[in-house]
Amino acid sequence: MKKILIVYHSQSGNTAQLAQAVYQGASAAAEGEVQLSLLAAMEAGVSDLQAADAVIFGSPENFGYLSGGLKDFLDRTFYPLEPYKLNIPYGCFISAGNDGSGAVRQLERIAKGYPLRQVAEPVIVKGQVTASGLQECEELGATFAAALSMGIF
């Protein structure tokens, strides 16, 4: 069975709401074909990422950058997984107070090092979490689950 890891960091709760929406969208589309893991970045580790067939990252934009919590996860997993050249598909969602571009840029640079393949446009939710932002996150999760179950990636 294919596996999607949704790993996120949240302090205010906004990114956690978005992560839950990604999970709900993926769960609705998985139809028993895809196993889902929703983990806070501080709880996730090397074995979680190594077991994943795809990963969706969630982060607030902190001072124009990726959150320290998600960066910590990436730092902890990079060197142990470097020999494996994961090359799995990834996507991301950002809860942004600004425009989210700095966080996206930083994640894209880090992903090249693993390597991971970006297969979806980043979802950037600016300001407070809205119904449309939650819907975009549900669609991101559903897209990943459907694509994995159909063998698209």
Task: List descriptors.
153 residues, alpha/beta, Rossmann fold, seven-stranded mixed sheet
Structural write-up:
By secondary structure, the chain is an alpha/beta fold. It has a single domain, classed as 3-Layer(aba) Sandwich (Rossmann fold). The protein is 45% helix and 27% strand. The protein contains five helices and seven strands. Strands 1, 2, 3, 4, 5, 6 and 7 form a seven-stranded mixed beta sheet that branches. β3 and β4 form a beta hairpin. α1 packs parallel to α5. The longest helix has 19 residues. It is globular. The two termini are 14 Å apart. The mean pLDDT is 97.
Mean pLDDT: 97
Amount of beta strand: 25-35%
Class per helix and strand makeup: alpha/beta
Q: How many individual β-strands? A: 7
Uncertain regions: pLDDT < 50 for 5+ in a row?
A: none
Principal-axes geometry comes out as: globular
| Major sheet summary line | 7 strands, mixed
Distance between the termini: 14 Å
Helix content: 40-55%
Summarize the structure.
The longest helix is centred in the last third of the chain and has 19 residues, at 131-149. This protein is an alpha/beta fold and 153 residues long.
Helices and strands in order:
Layout: E1 2-8, H1 14-30, E2 34-40, H2 46-51, E3 54-62, E4 65-66, H3 68-81, E5 88-96, H4 101-113, E6 116-118, E7 123-126, H5 131-149
